[in-house]
């Protein structure tokens, strides 16, 4: 390599090749020391305080929240373990009977309505009818006889049968009435005789 022949050193040298090599070595060493030299003046910015970079209150609240969550988790896990080990203390059967707040009032109203209904029923059953059914039947029979007498041809057989049944029923009713009256009279006579016997024995 003949490039060193064209090299022009600052000072005269007997060997241009070695002079060039030494000059480049000194130059590289100079550049290295320049790059690694520490400045005499501190041009860096001021350090930011630690309380500006880290929010200690936020860290404290977060630590407290995590502590509470861990405590709740431990309690929950212990409760679940207790439930799994035990048979359970809660009765899940629903034996609740529905209760009404005004059941006594409704019961009293029902009793009052029942008494009124019974009283009304007694009045209805004990009240005598104002219609004279016997008289109407007698008038009807009398009119039927008159009609039969006035007709030129005999009435239908059905009408005759009805009249016959009516007569039979009347006779039966009269017989039952007479029997009932005779029994009542016998009972009355028997009670009078018993009273007479008791009075004579007392004397």
TrEMBL record:
InterPro entries for this protein: CFAP97D1/2, Hmw/CFAP97
Region listing for Disordered, in residue ranges: 171-203
Signal peptide as annotated in the record: none
Pfam families per record: Hmw_CFAP97
PANTHER family membership: MIP11318P, SI:CH211-284K5.2
Protein family per UniProt: Belongs to the CFAP97 family.
UniProt-recorded name of the protein: Si:ch211-284k5.2
Organism, as annotated: Latimeria chalumnae
Gene name linked to the record: LOC135359826
